[in-house]
Design brief:
Layout lengths: L2 H10 L3 E5 L8 E3 L9 E4 L12 H6 L4 E4 L5 H4 L4 E5 L2 H12 L8 E6 L4 H14 L4 E4 L4 E3 L2 E3 L10 H13 L4 E5 L2 H5 L8 E6 L7 H4 L2 H13 L1 E7 L5 H8 L4 E6 L6 E8 L4 E7 L2 E7 L4 H16 L4 H7 L11 E3 L6 E5 L4 H14 L4 E5 L8 H13 L2 E4 L9 H14 L3 E2 L9 E4 L3 H12 L5 E5 L6 E4 L2 E4 L2 H10 L4 E7 L16 E2 L2 E2 H11 L2 E8 L3 H8 L4 E4 L6 H11 L5 E6 L8 H14 L3 E7 L8 E4 L5 E5 L6 H4 L3 E10 H7 L15 H8 L4 E5 L12 H17 L1
Parallel strand pairs: 2-3, 3-4, 4-5, 6-10, 6-11, 7-10, 11-12, 12-13, 13-14, 18-23, 19-20, 19-23, 20-22, 21-22, 26-29, 26-31, 29-30, 32-36
Antiparallel strand pairs: 1-5, 7-8, 8-9, 14-15, 15-16, 17-18, 24-25, 27-28, 31-35, 32-35, 33-34
Helix pairs in contact: 4-6, 5-11, 5-12, 13-14, 14-15, 16-17
C-alpha cells in the first residue's frame, strides 16, 4: 500500500480535503499512537476524549513517520518538506477506511452480523457463534469477552466491546485467512459514535434493547439511541426486540427499505418465546413460529436470557438455519464467562459472577436470583467512576429493595474517590429502607460499605454467608483489570473468589497503622497514602487475607477515622490514643485478641510488597521453630537508617543495633531487621512490660528482641531472600520510589 493509494481511497469516500504527497512511498505500518510509530509508518492523528493526536505530530515524525493523516491544515514548520501530509474531513473515519485497506478489506469477504443494545450483546454473540459452529458453518466472533477465530482465542482489550479499527480489521482478516464465512461482532454505541467500524456493511444488524446507559458520554438518551441505530443504516436485514420501547421508532425509520424480523415474549412477532420450567441449572422454553411450537432446553436462566435466545435463533433463521436445528444446537451451550457464572464450592452457598452494571440488568438479575435462593440473597456491587452518576442512586435503591444484604464496593473508581461513589449508592439503599448492617435494627434488608473489592468478596463469603445463601458479585463479569486513577490493576472476580475459597482460615495478624509519618509532613495518615492509586495498607490487608489471616486487627491512632473509612468495617480496630511507639501500638492490638496464641505483627507502611507466600512462610517458620519470637531480616545493599543484626562468629544473634549508635564496623553490616514479627501472645504480654520508654518517650517493639536475647529465650530469625519485598516509606522520595515500583509490578502482569 502506497501513499497515493490512501489519497485515492479518501477521495473516493469524500473524506479528502487536501493532499501534499511528496513521495509515493510504500507504507510499512499504520498507527494512531505516536509511541508505536517506526520508520516508514503512516500516522493518523485522531482527537480523542482525553488527548489529541495532533499534539504528537512532531514525535511521530521524529520516530520515522513518512505520511501523516490529520484534520488540521498542513503546516510546513511542523511537518517539514520530506513527509507526506493528507488533510481529511474526519480522521476517525479515515482511520477505519485505511485500516480496512491495510488488511485488504476483509469485511467485504465475510457476512457480518452486528449486535448492539444495552444488554445481552455478549450472550447473543456467543449463542450465535455456538449455533453456527454446531451446524458446521465457519464463523468467527469478536465479543466483549474475547475474539474467537477457529481455535485461536485473543484478548480484545480492557473495558471495551468492539476494538479500535486496526485491531478490529486484523481480526476480520484472520477470519478470512481461516476460510470462515461469517463474523459475529458486538458493536457498541461508543464504537459507532467514534466511527471505529465506519465503512463496514452488515448482513444482519441486531438490536437487543435500549435502556439509558453511557449518558456521561452521550449526554442524552436520544443521542445514545441515535448512535445505536447507526448500525441499522448499513445492515441488509434487521432483527429487533418487539417488546423494547424503541421498536416503534425502528419500525418507523426502516419499515420500507429493510427486511426486518422481530421476537417477543408478550406480543405478536415473528417468533414468540415462553419459559416452561426453570431450575438452578437450566431452563425449559418454547418458541412459537407460524402457529408451530418448538421446545428446547438451555443452561441459561431467566426471562432476559430467553430474549437473548430468541434474538439468536431469529438471526439464525434469517441465515437459513431452522428453529429446530438452532434450538437443538443450544442444548449443550455453555454461558459466556461472567454472565451468571456459577462458582462451585463446598460451603453450601451459591456464588455467581455477573456483568450486571446497569439499573435494569441489576434488577433483572436480582429478581431471578431472589426466586432461586433458599435463604438470603447477598449482592456485592459498585458503580464505575467517571461514568453516569445518575445510576448510582438507582442501583443502590434496586439492591436495597431486592437483596437481603447489599455490600457496596469498588468497581473501577478511576479518578473518583471510591468512598464518595459508595456513599452515593448508599443513599439509594437507604431510600429502599435498607439499614446499616451493624445497626441493632432488626430490618430484613441491610447494606454495608467495604471500599476494597477483594475485602468485600472475602467478607461476604467468609464472614456473612451461611448454608443456603446466595452471593452474586456484580459489575465486572469477565473483565481482567480494575482501574484506580489511570492505572489498570490486575483483577478478575473469579480469581478473587477462588483465592478466598482456598485461603486458610483462623490465623491472626496485627497491622501497625497508627503513625502520622512525621517526615512526610502529610495531613493524611501515612498508611492510607496512595501507591499506584491505592492506599499503602490495602495491599497488606489483601495479601494477608490470601495467606490465611482471617482475623486482622489494625492499630490506628492519628486520624483513625480516615483509616477506618478507607479500609472499612471488615477488620478489627484497636486504638492507640497517644503515640507511644511501635511496642505500645502492638500491645494495644494484642489486648484486643483474647485467646489467640500466635500473632503476626507487621508495619502497615512498609508491607505493600510482601507476597502472600511470604506472610505464610514467616508464620509457619515460627510454628515449626517453637520460638517465643520470630522476626524477619533481609540483606540490604543500602541499609541506611535501618537496624543491623549483630551476630557472633557462629551466626548466633547477639543484638540489633540502631544506626545512630552503631560502630563503624557495625554500620557495614547489611543484614537488617525489616519489622515483621510473630509472637507467642503470652510471652509478648509478659515481656512488653519490661520494655522501657526511649529517649523520645516511646516504647519500641525492637526492644523485645533484646529482652529475649538477655533472657536466653529462643528467637527465630526468618531470612527473606527477596529484599525487594520490603519497601520502607518515610520520605516523599521513598513514597515516589514505592509508587514507581508498584507500577512496574503491575505492568509485569
Amino acid at each position: 500500500m502506497r501513499a497515493q493509494d490512501i489519497v485515492g481511497l479518501l477521495r473516493e469516500a469524500s473524506l479528502l480535503k487536501k493532499s501534499n504527497v511528496i513521495q509515493n512511498v510504500n507504507i510499512v505500518g499504520i498507527s494512531d499512537d505516536s509511541r508505536k510509530i517506526a520508520r516508514g509508518f503512516l500516522f493518523v492523528a485522531v482527537k480523542g476524549l482525553r488527548t489529541d493526536g495532533n499534539k504528537y505530530l512532531e514525535d511521530a515524525i521524529k520516530s520515522g513517520a513518512s505520511t501523516i493523516v490529520s484534520e488540521r491544515p498542513f503546516k510546513k514548520a511542523v511537518v517539514g518538506e520530506r513527509v507526506n501530509y493528507i488533510q481529511v474531513q474526519d480522521s476517525r473515519k479515515a482511520l477505519s477506511l485505511i485500516a480496512a485497506l491495510w488488511y485488504e478489506n476483509p469485511a467485504e469477504k465475510l457476512k457480518i452480523i452486528g449486535l448492539t443494545g444495552t444488554k445481552g450483546k455478549t450472550t447473543v454473540a456467543h449463542l450465535l457463534h455456538h449455533i453456527f459452529n454446531k451446524v458446521k458453518i465457519g464463523v468467527g466472533m469478536i465479543s466483549t469477552v474475547n475474539a474467537v477465530i477457529a481455535n485461536e482465542v485473543s484478548d480484545t482489550g480492557l473495558h471495551v466491546t468492539n476494538p479500535e479499527p486496526l485491531l478490529f480489521q486484523s481480526f476480520l482478516k484472520k477470519m478470512v485467512d481461516k476460510g470462515l464465512k461469517y463474523a459475529v461482532c458486538e458493536i457498541t454505541s461508543h464504537g459507532l459514535d467514534q466511527e471505529r467500524v465506519y465503512g463496514i456493511n452488515y448482513e444482519v444488524g441486531v438490536l437487543t434493547n435500549i435502556t439509558p446507559e453511557h449518558l456521561d458520554y452521550h449526554k442524552t438518551f436520544a443521542n445514545y439511541r441515535r448512535s445505536k441505530l447507526k448500525l441499522f443504516e448499513r445492515s441488509k436485514k434487521l432483527v429487533v426486540n418487539r417488546d423494547d420501547p424503541s421498536y416503534r421508532v425502528i419500525r418507523q425509520m426502516f419499515k420500507n427499505d429493510k427486511k426486518m424480523a422481530s421476537y417477543s415474549l408478550n406480543a405478536d412477532a415473528d417468533i414468540v418465546g415462553k419459559i416452561h420450567r426453570m431450575t438452578e441449572d437450566y431452563m425449559d422454553y418454547g418458541v412459537v413460529k407460524d402457529a408451530k411450537v418448538y421446545r428446547g432446553r438451555i443452561k441459561l436462566l431467566g426471562k432476559y436470557n430467553l430474549y437473548n435466545v430468541l434474538a439468536a435463533v431469529c438471526v439464525a433463521q434469517l441465515e437459513g438455519i431452522g428453529l429446530k436445528a438452532s434450538m437443538r444446537a443450544l442444548e449443550d451451550f455453555q454461558p459466556p464467562e461472567g454472565r451468571l457464572e456459577k462458582v462451585n464450592n463446598e460451603l453450601g452457598i451459591n456464588i455467581y459472577i455477573d456483568f450486571a452494571h446497569t439499573p435494569d440488568s441489576l434488577e433483572n438479575l436480582l429478581l431471578l436470583l431472589k426466586k432461586m435462593t433458599k435463604k438470603r440473597l447477598i449482592c456485592v456491587f459498585g458503580c464505575a467512576g467517571e461514568r453516569d452518576k445518575r445510576k448510582r442512586f438507582q442501583m443502590g435503591k434496586i439492591s436495597g429493595r431486592l437483596a437481603d444484604l447489599s455490600i457496596i464496593t469498588a468497581e473501577d473508581p478511576r479518578t473518583e474517590d471510591v468512598n464518595g461513589i459508595c456513599s452515593q449508592i448508599k443513599r439509594g439503599a437507604l431510600k429502599a429502607l435498607a439499614k446499616d448492617y451493624f445497626s441493632k435494627d432488626n430490618a430484613e434488608r441491610k447494606y454495608l460499605i467495604v471500599p476494597d473489592r477483594y475485602e468485600a468478596i472475602y467478607y461476604s463469603i467468609k464472614s456473612v454467608a451461611q448454608t443456603g445463601d446466595t452471593i452474586v458479585i456484580c459489575g465486572k463479569g469477565h473483565e481482567n483489570s480494575m482501574c484506580y486513577g489511570k492505572i489498570e490493576h490486575l483483577w478478575k472476580d473469579r480469581i478473587a473468589i477462588e483465592n478466598v475459597l482456598k485461603a486458610e482460615y483462623g490465623k491472626n495478624a496485627i497491622i501497625l497503622a497508627a503513625g502520622k509519618g512525621k517526615r512526610l509532613n502529610s495531613e493524611a495518615p501515612k498508611v492510607i497514602l496512595d501507591i499506584a492509586e491505592k492506599p499503602i495498607v490495602s495491599y497488606c490487608v489483601t495479601n494477608l487475607r490470601r495467606s490465611g489471616f482471617s482475623n486482622i486487627t489494625l492499630v490506628v491512632g492519628y486520624r483513625a477515622s480516615d483509616v477506618i473509612k478507607e479500609i472499612g468495617p471488615t477488620v478489627n480496630y484497636a486504638f492507640q490514643r497517644t503515640a507511644l511507639g511501635t511496642g505500645h501500638a502492638a500491645w494495644q492490638g494484642m489486648k484486643n485478641l483474647k485467646s489467640e496464641r500466635t500473632i503476626l505483627v507487621v508495619n502497615g507502611d512498609d508491607s505493600a510488597f510482601y507476597k502472600p507466600e511470604t506472610f505464610a512462610a514467616v508464620f509457619q517458620s515460627h510454628l515449626e521453630s517453637k520460638a517465643k519470637l520470630t522476626f524477619t531480616s533481609t540483606i540490604l545493599e543500602n541499609p541506611t537508617g535501618i537496624g543491623r543484626l549483630v551476630r557472633d562468629i557462629n551466626g548466633t544473634l547477639l543484638r540489633i543495633v540502631e544506626e545512630k549508635i552503631a560502630s563503624e564496623s557495625e554500620k557495614k553490616i547489611k543484614e537488617c531487621n525489616i519489622g515483621m514479627y510473630v509472637f507467642d501472645r503470652g510471652w509478648f504480654l509478659k515481656n512488653i512490660k519490661k520494655v522501657k520508654k526511649g529517649t523520645v518517650g516511646e516504647y519500641y517493639i525492637t526492644d523485645l528482641i533484646e529482652i529475649a536475647v538477655r533472657q536466653n529465650d529462643f528467637i527465630n530469625v526468618f531470612r527473606l531472600n527477596d529484599s525487594r519485598q520490603w519497601c520502607g516509606i518515610n520520605t516523599w522520595d521513598e513514597l515516589e520510589h514505592a509508587n514507581k515500583k508498584m507500577n512496574e509490578e503491575i505492568n509485569k502482569t
